[in-house]
């Protein structure tokens, strides 16, 4: 595989960091402030897609910023998997910024400059994770992401917000600064490097013991340290921070669930399986089986929790916990189809779930309603919003011609290839549960009897809120019809 040295990955990281400074300096000029966000988003997206032809040709882009220790560098590496995540997050940042302008201004939210600044830093961090060439770089940006999104979670600064913030720090920073960092240090001690390797970073170890512990046992322990250290992925029991974070404004929820935070966690687990342990080591230690069990429990249990939630954002939050584990389950299958299904879900779920959260926010902006039980007949007042929500729901369920179907098709093929019939059952059961918690929302909104006031005074949200959700809804359909671009990136990323 050829290597190209290019500064583009660093530029993709820096552009939103520079924008964050400009946003802070423009706090007295809202239009300019938001213009910096959109401009940086467009530039970042163009930088990212400019690398696509090189990556699809089978070439890897690398760039080293500096070295700390032998084998420990702040370095970037762009491959198909990283480019897939970067393309998705950079595009959705543009859409989310436009949505935020409508949402934040309509509701006259406070601290908007802080909001846009933290958002920009979060996108730099997500880009750093996407293009990380080693575990050190990944950890560095992973931690920055946790810290810069905390002000977004506690944006409203109420008692519930501060409680959510403390839980956010406890789960995310606590897990990463203890067990994740420990796993990274042990990796360096064992291998002398932190660079990713498709063959597996531990493949060259010849010793049988380390500090009196057998190597297979140590690697198994380290794997679970990595797995739960990446708490952003929301695997049970490290999931509870995510529903709690729903106290934040809806654009923040969209960021958490679709653009950056939880996707970073899932992406890190993909890297863990593919580029840290590698498929042969995963198979030899039976780690794929253990991971699949954890993912399956998370998928089914969180879907059951979603059924009990009347608050729309909370239902979507538990849905996210479930859907993230599709990514984990896919890579745990250790087959080409399974891994493909897991990775493509990073894109498919991003477009689908951001659509659903945008719709929830639009309903709140237009009506200040948050509970599903309050939305009977609201489609008569907000037909475009409910139509987009229906598209998102059908995608999560896995109906053909929608993005989610592509995910479930590849996952199902992966389970058949590996003769994992129980996991196929998990996917099918999960789809039924998806129907159970989304169908009532759509049914009540479309066919429900409106309240006595007939939702008086309610109409579609402002166009800056409405247009972004329609764009992402169209994207959800487009990905279901033409997923080839991202599938090609996955092919060159895992070979």
Give the DSSP E fraction (strand runs of 2 or more residues).
under 5%
Q: Please identify the structural class as seen in this structure.
A: mainly alpha
Strand order in space, largest sheet = 1-2-3
- Please state the average pLDDT score: 93
Tell me about this structure:
The chain contains 19 helices and 5 strands. The chain is mostly helical and 495 residues long. It has a domain at 286-495. The strands form 2 sheets. It has a 3-stranded mixed sheet. Strands 4-5 form a two-stranded antiparallel sheet.
Q: How would you concisely characterize the structure shown here?
A:
The protein has helices at residues 8-25, 30-50, 52-56, 80-106, 112-130, 135-153, 159-191, 215-229, 241-244, 250-259, 261-284, 287-307, 312-332, 336-367, 383-397, 403-417, 421-447, 463-481, 484-494; strands spanning 3-5, 60-69, 72-78, 209-210, 213-214.
What order do the helices and strands come in, and which of them pair?
Layout: E1 3-5, H1 8-25, H2 30-50, H3 52-56, E2 60-69, E3 72-78, H4 80-106, H5 112-130, H6 135-153, H7 159-191, E4 209-210, E5 213-214, H8 215-229, H9 241-244, H10 250-259, H11 261-284, H12 287-307, H13 312-332, H14 336-367, H15 383-397, H16 403-417, H17 421-447, H18 463-481, H19 484-494
Parallel strand pairs: 1-2
Antiparallel strand pairs: 2-3, 4-5
Q: Any key phrases for this structure?
A:
495 residues; mainly alpha; two-stranded antiparallel ribbon; 72% helix; 5% strand; globular
């Amino acid at each position: 595989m050829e290597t190209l040295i290019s500064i583009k990955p660093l530029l993709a990281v820096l552009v939103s960091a520079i924008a964050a400074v400009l946003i802070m300096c423009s706090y007295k000029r809202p239009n300019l402030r938001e213009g910096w966000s959109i401009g940086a988003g467009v530039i970042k997206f163009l930088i990212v897609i400019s690398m696509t032809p090189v990556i699809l040709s089978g070439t890897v882009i690398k760039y080293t910023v500096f070295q700390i220790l032998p084998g420990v560098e702040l370095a970037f590496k762009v491959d198909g998997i990283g480019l897939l995540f970067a393309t998705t997050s950079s595009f959705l940042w543009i859409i989310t910024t436009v949505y935020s302008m409508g949402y934040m201004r309509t509701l006259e939210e406070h601290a908007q400059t802080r909001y846009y600044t933290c958002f920009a830093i979060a996108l730099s961090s997500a880009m750093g994770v996407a293009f990380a060439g080693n575990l050190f770089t990944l950890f560095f940006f992973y931690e920055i992401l946790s810290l810069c999104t905390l002000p977004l979670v506690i944006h409203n600064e109420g008692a519930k917000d501060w409680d959510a913030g403390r839980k956010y720090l406890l789960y995310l920073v606590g897990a990463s600064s203890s067990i994740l960092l420990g796993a990274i240090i042990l990796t360096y001690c064992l291998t002398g490097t932190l660079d990713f390797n498709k063959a597996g970073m531990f493949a060259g170890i010849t010793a049988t013991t380390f500090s009196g512990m057998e190597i297979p046992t140590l690697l198994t322990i380290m794997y679970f340290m990595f797995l739960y250290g990446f708490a952003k992925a929301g695997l049970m029991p490290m999931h509870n921070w995510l529903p709690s974070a729903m106290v934040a404004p809806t654009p923040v929820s969209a960021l958490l669930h679709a653009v950056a935070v939880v996707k970073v966690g899932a992406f890190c687990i993909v890297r863990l399986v593919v580029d840290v342990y590698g498929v042969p080591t995963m198979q030899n230690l039976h780690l794929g089986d253990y991971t699949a069990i954890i993912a399956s429990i998370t998928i089914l249990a969180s879907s059951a929790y979603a059924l009990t939630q009347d608050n729309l954002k909370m239902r979507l939050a538990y849905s996210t916990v479930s859907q993230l584990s599709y990514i984990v389950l896919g890579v745990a299958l250790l087959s080409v189809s399974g891994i493909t299904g897991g990775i493509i879900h990073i894109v498919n779920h991003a477009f689908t779930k951001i659509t659903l959260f945008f719709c929830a926010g639009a309903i709140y902006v237009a009506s200040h309603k948050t509970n599903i039980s309050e939305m009977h007949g609201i489609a008569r007042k907000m037909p475009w919003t409910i139509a987009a929500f229906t598209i998102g729901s059908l995608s999560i369920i896995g109906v053909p011609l929608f993005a989610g179907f592509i995910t479930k098709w590849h996952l199902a093929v992966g389970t058949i290839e590996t003769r994992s019939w129980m996991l196929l059952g998990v996917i099918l059961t999960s789809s039924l549960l998806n129907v159970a918690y989304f169908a009532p929302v759509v049914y009540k909104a479309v066919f429900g009897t409106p309240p006595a006031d007939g939702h008086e005074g309610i109409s579609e949200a402002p166009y800056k809120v409405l247009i972004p959700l329609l764009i992402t809804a169209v994207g959800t359909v487009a990905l279901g019809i033409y997923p080839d671009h991202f599938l090609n990136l996955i092919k060159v990323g895992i070979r």
